[in-house]
Write a structure and sequence with these properties.
Blueprint (H helix, E strand, L loop, with lengths): L6 E7 L5 H12 L4 E3 L7 E9 L6 H5 L3 E9 L1 E3 L8 E4 L7 H10 L2 E5 L8 E2 L2 E2 H6 L9 E14 L2 E8 L5 H12 L3 E11 L2 E2 L6 H9 L7 E2 L9 E4 L2 H8 L18 E5 L5 E8 L4 E7 L18
Parallel strand pairs: 3-12, 15-16
Antiparallel strand pairs: 1-3, 1-14, 2-3, 4-11, 4-12, 5-6, 7-10, 8-9, 10-11, 12-13, 16-17, 17-18
Length: 316
């Protein structure tokens, strides 16, 4: 693996490490600069952390925008300033009045599209500064509530004062804020004590590897066995196969027509565009008024993708 690697690794991030700790370790191991991750996990959280190498890092937005699943454990009766176990205790209340029925009712109130206030200890910015930097200085600022979507919120274990939940959510949702809101709605306070990410987009925890395991495989020449092609992130999009002339146009940032194969596409629909020999060459959008496909990301992929024939437009 001396050539630059264009791929994604499904890493199982351990507790006690930041997401950037994992990225830095992978970067040192593979010896290339273009490495990033697909969604921050707090140091005390574990689980699925997609690490993108080479031109796959240009596709991280598709991971960030995807749905995620978590298993979280919440302690009732204690609220903290960070909304998790790392923070300063703000209140300590009796939570013995909380019943499974009342908890189920509160969870039902938090499903769907909800307004959520991000925690002060977060990486969001206020006037150019990270919120957690302000919080460490003892400064608290107003954080406007944001709409997030909770697709699934299930009670999986009830051992007072601890509650385990399974969450499936969209981009921008904070499970720490969800734990805090559960405590507020119940009137006893609560905070998150453990969190494990089970899924991000197409990546699942059952298929994740530890950083140690990836290093072991990489050093023994078997790293390819746990690498996903960059377009694995794009399999929710349909594909188009281009001719050599169309490939040249796309590589030069020019639109292509592909008529009449794909004119049933929706306006601004996105597609993967492959060369005739199966290399991913671009991501394109359909301009329905002009009946053309316009490239918005162009790649210099060297290898044929195993997904070049996945979900190809076939109507004529």
């Amino acid at each position: 693996m001396n050539d630059p690697i264009d791929a994604v690794i499904n890493i199982d991030k351990p507790v006690g490490h930041t997401s950037m700790d994992v990225v830095r370790r992978v970067k040192r191991l593979v010896g290339q600069k273009q490495v990033g991750h697909g969604g921050t996990l707090d140091p005390q959280s574990s689980g699925v952390l997609p690490v993108c190498l080479g031109y796959a890092s240009r596709l991280m937005e598709f991971v960030l925008d995807s749905s995620k699943e978590y298993q979280g454990t919440i302690k009732m009766g204690v609220s903290t300033d960070t909304y998790d176990a790392e923070g300063k205790v703000l209140s300590n209340c009796d939570s013995s009045f909380v019943t499974e029925k009342s908890l189920e009712f509160v969870l039902s109130e938090l499903r769907g599209k909800i307004q959520q206030t991000p925690p002060m200890f977060s990486a969001l910015k206020h006037a150019g500064q990270r919120l957690y930097e302000l919080a460490r200085q003892g400064i608290e600022v107003d954080r406007p509530a944001r709409q997030v979507e909770i697709f699934r919120l299930d009670l999986t274990e009830w051992k007072p004062p601890f509650v385990t939940i399974h969450v499936e959510c969209g981009r921008g949702a904070y499970i720490r804020s969800l734990a805090h809101d559960i405590g507020q709605l119940l009137g006893c306070g609560a905070h998150l004590v453990a969190l494990r990410r089970l899924k991000t987009g197409p990546f699942r925890i059952e298929d994740a590897v530890s950083v140690d395991r990836f290093e072991e495989l990489f050093r023994s020449g078997l790293g390819d066995s746990v690498l996903y092609p960059p377009d694995y992130l794009l399999l929710h999009l349909r594909a188009i196969i281009t001719s050599s002339q169309e490939e040249i146009r796309l590589r030069n940032g020019q639109e292509i027509q592909l008529e009449p194969t794909t004119h049933h596409a929706e306006h601004l629909e996105q597609c993967r565009a492959y060369s005739s020999d199966g290399r991913l060459i671009a991501l394109v959008r359909f301009d329905r008024p002009l009946l053309v496909w316009k490239p918005f990301k162009v790649f210099r992929s060297r290898l044929r993708s195993p997904y070049a024939e996945h979900e190809v437009f076939t109507l004529r």
